[in-house]
Fold these 3 entries.
Entry 1:
Amino acid sequence: MNELIQQAKEFGNKLFYSFFRHRFDNTGLTKSKIMFSNVLLHIQPVKIHKRSVKFKTTMGLGLITFYLFLILSVTGILLMFHYVPSTAIGPDGLPDAYSRMLNLRSNVFWGGFLRNMHRWAAHGMVAFVALHMLRVYLAGAHRGGREFNWVIGCILGLMTVFLSYTGYLLPWDQLAFWGVKVGTEIAKIAPGGALIRGILLGDTDVGSEALIRFYVLHVAVLPVVMGFLIAVHFFRIRKDGGLARPADTSKEKQIPDEEFGDVKNASVFKAARSYKLVEIVKGNEPKVNEETDQMMFAWPKLIVRELIVLLATIAFLSLISVLFDAPLEGPADPNHPPNPSKAPWYFLGLQELVSYHGFIGGIVIPGIMVGGVMFLPYVELFLETFTKTYRKNIPGVWFARERNLENALFIALYLFMLGLIIIGVYFRGMNWDIVYPWVESVGGGH
Amino acid sequence: MLKDYRTLLILALVGFVFFAMSMKKALDQDYVKYQKAYYAELDEEFSGAEIKQVNVKTPGSVMVDRCQSCHVGSSNPDAAGFMLPLATHPSITGGSEADPHDFSKIGCVVCHDGNGRALDEDDAHGKFHGWIKPMLVGSIAQANCTRCHAMESGHLAGADLYEKGRALFLEKACWGCHTIAGISSSSQAPELTDAGGKFNYDYLVESIVYPKANDENSKMPQFDWVHDEEAVSALATYLKGQQKVRLRTEDSAPIGYIKPMSDLARIETPSVTAGRALFAGVPYEGSIAKGGCINCHAFRSDDGQLVGGNIGPELTWTLRNRGESFVKDHIVNARVHTQDSIMPTFKDYNNAELDSLVLFLKTLNYKLESALDGHQLYDAYCISCHGEDLNGQGLVSAMLDPFPRDFTKYQFVKSYEDRFKDSILNGVSGTAMSTWKNILSEKDVETLVEYIKTKTLAQAPKNFRRIDIDLPQLGDAERLDYKEKGSLIEVGDVTRGLEAFQANCTSCHGKLANGKGPSAYTLEHPLPRNLINKEFMNQTSVSDERLYQSILLGVAGTPMPSHDFLKDQTIVDIIAFIRANTEDSE
């Protein structure tokens, strides 16, 4: 009998170690093993700087953006089971794509909630990309070898907007049709814009061809490219030695001695086979017998904090989705434009500019802004090099005094766009006249 | 670290609660509640909620109809007294024993519109922004009777509101401007053959009650009966029923197609009673009414009682003023006399019908007492157009084009008082101002002119005087000859005139010279003159000299400014251009 128990235990152990290749004790070895023997966790390094888990370092903005991307992928795939990118008129006189929206709202179980989640997460992702970018800039984290990662981040931001925009058309209701129509009309103003517009729409106007193209871009092309770029974005952060941070000032030990277990020679990896070259990242190399840098094990603190952000994001999004339904208007009707016709909110600043002057407002100013922001670290680098004003860049410090001018300009840019968007969303009524939202409420833009 | 785990736990719980809420929202829909209540009230066992869907098959389409998931008792007579979503549908045909409509086969959307596949109340009733077919509640659902029943004419049980609207469409003279295929033909106003297919009920009501709601420049009059909600509702129901796409064809319609009677019964012998019926828009001896002058025009009965609409001029004196042939021509096509009139063309009238109308107008014999002062004369004859305050904004002025003259501007009255007598006696061609010489004596007219002058000129400054300036003759020296070239006035050149007109005049008078330039919309009374109104431009009082003075000095008391920067030659060219536009082609 005892033998049987023994054998069962042994079998259980084998089973356990076939899933997990480590124990769950509190030693540094185990903590390291947990991180690098799990494909999901190994995206993160085994050891991180203690700043990384502090809320004020990142506010979790980039992480929230990434989680929203994951949520969008999951809900998007579920929605794909119900959606048809077709404008063919169905048996009840409505375009297929639109009648699928009606089905989602009425007789697909949980369909309305899924659509709400997807809609609000999409808007949220655009907003959080912008906030993440603001954080990175204000903390000076785009410098010190991270310039190119900033460019990749900007491309990711643009792709987020484009993903949201391609998805905006898919419900094929009045809001979708005219929102996209406004955006594509703006594209016409740009030199060569008519060609790009023609390629995107596959027609001279927003129609059935545009719907299928936007659909393929939305569900296949853009998410795949975006997933790849996200991987590059994360990879470069790791190769740059984690989050941008100033030099350590504290000598306090981050990893208590007892966590090293019984190993007496202070080697963390005594019992494990160690590769000679694990990884090369920026930063001071750890010295033998000296654990004085401010690094700590990622497990479990970082993972738990990340889970907290994930759960908070999901919970908040669920609440929004239970409370507010995603908008759906009448089926798209090219003959009856709503007045006013508004683009989605993130383009309303642009639409507001276009309402002043087509070419300057629609192409020149946004072109300078997007291009300028994207290559901002290089502009800074260029100016510093050629004017020989090498200033001390302290990456990872909020509102560094040396960068007051840049920060002020960047905040001004954000306020400018925010102001335009608020005017566009709330203060523009019929015929694009100024209205006051407390007098007359206006729709569109969401 | 412990704090982190606690946060994680709390968030997990909160997330689970929200997740559960979303599930509850998805599971616990209204129809489940209603079906439970329904079976409880019926004292029957509730065997689980189900979505009750009707697929209404029609040629070329299937209508998905889930309304009876909530309206579960609609065809159960036992549910008569139940609360609203559960109760029995009231009888449609009214009175007849067995209602021929079977809801389990035709569903609800066929008649009531809305969003049949939705299960949420607001969603299903189409109460969300932009839904194409908002629900037709109550009797206005009769608009959809014609989706299946062909009934251009004749009677259909239960469709009384629709039938009332159909009668009103003729009685209120809507037919005069709007085409509905098979009923009327006119190009004055948008066609309404597919009005119900294009517009929803609320839009139609809004367009009837306030025509300018969606088109600021709409010329549709705002009738005074639009405050009668039932009439508007009936008319809008009828218009909502005008749909090109129908669920049944003429061959398969449950009630046969009856040809409109209007084509069959016409008035053959002229008579006063026939004329009165036409004027009032009521049926006459079996004809379907095709008149309705009274909706726009008023007249005074023998005891001075004013009846009728106030969209067009009052007709009490018209026949006496204008004469028989003018009136007949005007009914057939008002634009031969007044180019900008909005009066519909009644070109379908036969001679007997025109004669009947004239005969009826002849019976209007109202006369005023002989000795009257200026004020009384003005109140009797002028006030309806020129207004109580002489400001040209009388009751019927809004739809007249050109507007009646505004006499409150002393600049105008002082400058042009010589013209007044002639204008009253002989009328102003091309406008709504008729000749009054058959009604008013010369002395009456002088009294009237004096009345206007005393009313207005009181405020005029003593020394206000209009410059008198003569039309330059051929060979006269150019007025603006700075370089002293010694230019002489030549014959006006139309091509140069066109160029000068486009450079100086089009912003108000328009590219077509019809007085509808872009700036005209911001001007107030009086609006720029229509310079291609032949009837107006070719009357004797509109001489070249008058045009010259009006261009050079402007027209006092109106938005027309002076143009003393123009050379005389240019003005002469412009006059030549204007004249060339209005030359009689014969």
Note: The radius of gyration of chain B is 33 Å.
Entry 2:
Amino acid sequence: MERKGVDPFEVDVIDALQIIKKYLPGWELIPDLCLDAEALNKLSTVIKLQGDWLKYRSSPQFINPLLIELKLKTMDAKRLVEIFLQSWHPIVELQQLSFGRIKEAVNYWNQLLPLEERWKKFPSPTPSKPGYASINDLTRLRLLSEEAFNEALQQFWQELVRQTGTAVKIPYWKFIYADTYEDTVLRAYLTSFLITYGYATLEIKPLEEEIFLIPNPKPKALAGKQAISIPISVDYQSWKEMRKARKVE
Amino acid sequence: MSEEVASTTRKVKRAAQMLLFQRHRIPGVKGWELKRALGREYLSVIELLNTELEKLGLQVKTVYEELETPKTPSEEQLDKARFFVTLKIPLTAVEATMSGWRVDDVAALAVTVAYIISKQGKAPRKEIVQILKEKFPQWKIEFNLDRYVRRGYLSQDENEMLYLDWRARAEIDPKALLNLILGETQSQAMETSTKQDQLPS
């Protein structure tokens, strides 16, 4: 109550005292009596606050806060500002650099090393060149299990055989195409492994600009043959054109 | 010029420097600092300075640690009191705006200070927000109240109770403000203000 500035007359002191008086004869234990003593002590504080409250309210300085609140609420902002400015005398203060502070600043500047020299103390790390992670790397890092990858590759090879059917070969783009661009890239990626591991052969007709995939009945070892890399760009634009063509079909 | 006059002039200049240039985080100078720099008769020096400042529309204001201004302050009270230079003549609305105060912000400060004064120097933040909410948006109220605390007009305790802080006590004449709000004539209020601002003798 003292802390929050609440009206101390909100506490019914007489009623509280009567309750204490009523139960006092029944108390036998010291902790119970101590609690009563504490309650009496707090009630005496409330009585003191009530006294102060009355004194202040009866003094000539007292102005009813409700009246002030009412006046403030009814006044417009402009009038309030006018009134406030009449009773407001802002402090005049100037800020300046003292001689001591300037001396400190000059010393700091003189002792401060050039930026280049300060940076030398913290050599920048030399990052390794970016590269590609191979299947072996992924397996070594336990991001991919060799068994799972081989199984996925086998299933993909069977799909190639199934799609080729009775024909000998299937157009590369027809095989790798999927409903989303991400899946198409994934299929192209897996296809590259089918070719590398001898599950399929890539046939390129440069003049016709056609690429075919020929599934092998059994994985062929590439022993004795010079492995060559054939980059095939699976860009988003090509995929979109393929999708458009499929829709027309 | 006699030695005594020259010495007093030097002291008045020194007092002006001490009071006008901000030396600490909070402006103004403590009584004991003035006593150390100007000697035991520092109040006479301040009075002389005040006479000079009045010609420029300024005045020396004394703010005591006690909430009530003592009628005859003791030496200890004067040592702990803070001396400031403030404007003697009130600002106009245009001047206040030019010094970086928006009309809204001054109005909100006026309401806050007046309400706290009427509640014997402290009021719960919630109550003030409630009053201001009738005319200002909530975000602006919170922003402004925090700003008044930062600038030293208000202080806030852990129970979110707001009090008038050092700057409000130095700059605002509480009696004049309440009298004006209650509709007293301007001249009466100004009279009260002038009486209150008098230096300790």
Note: Residues 3-89 of chain B form a domain with the Aspartate Aminotransferase, domain 1 fold (CATH 3.90.1150).
Entry 3:
Amino acid sequence: MSAGAAKKAAKAAKVAAPKEGAILDRGYTPYAGAYTEQASRWKVIASRTLRMSARQWWAILLLIATVGPLLVAGIRMWIYSKIGAVAPPGADIPSPDSMVMLPGGTMTLAFLIALFAGAGQVADDTRAGAFQFYFARPVTRDQYLVGKVVPVLTLTLFIALAPALLLSLLRLALLPTATEALKKLPLVGATLVTGTIEALVLAVPAVAISSLSRKRSLVQGGYAVLYLLPWIMGGIFAKVTRSAWPDLFSVPHHIENIARFLYRQPWGPEDRALPVWISAAFVALLVAGSLALLRKRLSAVEVVAS
Amino acid sequence: MTATNAATLLEFADVHKRYGAHHALRGLSLSVPAGTVGLLGPNGAGKSTLMKVLLGLLPFEGTAAVLGHDVRAQPAQIRARVGYMPERDCHLVGMSAVELCGYAAELSGLPPSEAMQRAHMVLEFVGLGDKRYQKVDGYSTGQKQRVKLAQALVHDPKLLLLDEPTNGLDPQGRDEMLALVSTLPARTGCSIVLSSHLLHDVERVCERAILLHEGKIVYSGTIEALRKEGQKDVYEVRVKEGEDKLQAALERRGMGVEREGPLLVVQVHNNVLQAHNNEGRPTELLFAVAAEEGVQVRHLAPRKLTLENAFVRVVNEAKAS
């Protein structure tokens, strides 16, 4: 290009350059790129929902609050392990292993995050008419279901599992020899299973109840009542009747019952517990029933307004 | 059916849909070429059911293809190539317009980076470039309509299904929305199916129309042909005096007459012409009747039908049959 032509081109570019701040309609360009796999749409829903939920004030607060039980249980575990090493045989010192099982307060935090994150999942979409947004696209109802349950499960799992997992690793680290640490390895497995069960039993029903109403507050109230009422009433009647059966519908009782079985931490002599298989069956039924309810509700939603 | 003709937008053969005892679609058969199509019909005519069938959301009897894809066998492929702008509000709580459109594109199969680029592009395209970072919850009705259009366009669909796109808009907003929609086929290369009960909207945007009545297609063709079809045997007559006398005389001879102020709107069916041995010459018959009654005709011309008149006429004929 000659110097004259280059000068001309530079001048033309200067004339064509938009003013700063000007809004330009860049027109419409057809899309010629690749498409993602149809089967992966649930991941799109899950990651977007998780990002939206994780930036809410309550999520940040509850995730930060998880540090509290972790620190308290960690310090207690350290103290018990040190005292236990020098205490005479038969001394009444709590087992450091018990600190790993449901670290104090995490179940409440997990319940709260399932309550906040789960309540709005389907209710908000029902209220905003978002089903037509999803299902008029290549998204199936099952993909939507998975995409909505996974983020609530992830957040709940984080609170239910992360502190306990760190504590179980700390427990292994506090043991004097590698052989002893190897013997205690099942502690990590018990933690993983307990945390997963706790997250499932808290998160899935929350999303299922969310499909029953378009009002988030109503869902939160309903979920809290369903969770807290059997727990409180069950506790009172179990004491009065000296039987474990009033706890049949108490979710925390079943979680603790399974956890004690997995961690080999027996109930106290004054406590009454249902057989573990009943707790396992209750948990399985609750999760499966919640998924079935969610599926049924989603299969009935209208996409095109009549 | 695995239609492969890309130029054919919709291809239906004997499509039925029943909800229990209610027969919502009754044997629809049609073939519509690519372009702009208005879907018209009174409430309960089957428009929504037809839209659901088009999107592959309902089981049905018969065979149907959209953009060459079998509706029953390939609903996901159809929905990937169709953009749907719903009638009702559809946004996600707490999302900005650009997030919503980006998400819509990802759900339609675009990779995240491409999805976000196209979200910015379509929002500028629909005139919301400067508002794209605001939450949709706080948008005005007109802005929400534009976001709905943007989310339907973001994945570059080959067919846009617009359900009452001017719903809730003031006259100026309606005008702007229709102006935008009518430019879409030329600018984006997509076809449009516009479902509306506002005939003016359809008239402004569409070349063709499908008229539904009680689950049946009562007309499918160009809007121009619909108007011509309607006006071929309807005449308007103005006389100096004696409107009542002429009306009575025409009605005695089996013609339908309606009064619009001083005008007599006369429908001359072919069987009336045959009965008077005047086949093909309706104006002669009208002049002859006026002469017999001693009425002086000042104006006699074929009626130019609006789409609304044509629509009412076609529906009335369907009801009568």
Note: DSSP finds twelve helices and 14 strands in chain B.
